[in-house]
Amino acid sequence: MLTGRGIVVGHRPGVPVLDGADLSVSPGEVVGLAGPSGSGKSTMARVLGMLLAPWSGEVAVDGVPVTGVRYRVPRELRGTVGMVFQSPRLSVDPRLPLAAVIAEPLRVPGTPTAGRRGAALRDRRVAELAERVGLTADLLPRRPHEVSDGQLQRACLARALAQQPRYLVCDEMTAMLDASSAAGLVAALRDDVATGRLGVLAISHDEDLLAAWADRTVRLTAAAGGAAHRAAGALAPEHW
Amino acid sequence: MTPALSVRDLTVRFPLAARRRAPRRVVHAATDVSFDLHAGRVLALVGESGCGKSVLASALLRLLPGNAVVTGSAVLAGSPPVDVLTADERVVGRQVRGRRLALVPQSAATSLTPVRTARSQLEEAVCELAPGTDPRARADELAERVGLAPRDLDLFPHELSGGMAQRVVVALALAGGPAVVLADEPTAGLDRPLANRTLQLLREVADAGCAVLLITHDLGGLLRAPEVADDLAVMYASRLMETGPAAAVLAAPAHDYTRDLLGALPAGGLVPIPGHPPELTDLPAGCAYHARRPDAGRCDGGALHTAALHTGGVRSARCRPLAVALC
Question: Does residue A54 sit at the B interface (CB-CB below 8 Å)?
Fold first, then answer.
């Protein structure tokens, strides 16, 4: 189980975005995380994805507490949580063809798919991952500017799945995509979730999507995020 | 009633630079697109990204790059009627663009000049497009029409919320008193309440007498706000696959693509459409959709079938004749 307990975190000292938030995701379930803009959904995603250290509170993966963030997290722990971001354009290197984008996590030194010796195995894994997310072989040599947003997001999903994570954090994964691409990405994860190999945290402001996709939905109220909003002088929601 | 804008067989091609030993490729951005825009009505044009929707708006405003090859006609009613596709650039620039045919651009926040207040930009548009009126009074009037307080106009773009910026660009589009408003993905990247209000705003623009073309990939947004669109056109791989009154098309789609697109929405069951949309340089002969999904249903190669509805209005769909039950 991927758990965050009593998470307090913010971006400015003294102004917490999340003030004691709890969340847990078990393998085999899709947990939706909803809430208005600025309620701290993406901040929670970054904490659970081990990209942002909470001020207080604990993140644990299958009972193992996470210490540190990013590269300070032990490698075997870091690979257990994958992440997919909202904008695929901003989350890939524009110079890499899609095959190299997907292969990036497989090149980590010390793994059987790394280096020149692992090249054959790596290519095989890339082909498998591409098939799993619905990318055809003719798309793999292309660079990001030669494919659509939906196709690029599929590559990002394949990259996140490359290390065989047990948990996947999808931060507005489908927000930029049209309906059929969004449905394609959700379908690509369905088998892994159904067999209990993967737990998904689906963050979205689209309640219809979460109703159809998530087994249960957690709502962040503006109460936690509201303090930060007011302090930052942001406009109240009714003053759109 | 004569339509405010009547588009017939609009075809846009972009020849690409020739590569050595490779055949010269051509982007088929729009093929034989025909539709009418009527005063007081909203036509929603939906389709997956990359199907050629935005090219249509650019073609109608004559803002396509120089290598585009455009054929067909798009006649703007009024005195005198103008074919915006063939008219002289000086006529389009001085009499049509902004004055009779206006654009609401995709990203409101980035289409305003960051170093000038909303008022200064709106008054400039008024001076340019409606000389002789008092710019300040007219700007206040436009602001009120889109639901902004006049004092909000004295803010700089970074001080405006997303929704206020959206209203300012709609006010800018209305500055010249256009008969036709083209909105190119006005809701892209907005959160849901904001997107809904933007759609409502366009509905109000139509209710005030404009003809509105609403270009969007967000079919779900249209379903949530069924009162916004009167008519619907569904585009796939450069062609219109189905057109008709929005309520009728959404309730009983005639084309397999429309049906599959509705099925891919969360409300429709999140069933993805197999395969990928084709490259516009490399369209299959005949119907592009049934080339992607041969198992979807009968197809006669993409011929266009039209039927008049007993409730009034006209429906059209490609690939097979409309069932009597749909009319």
Answer: no
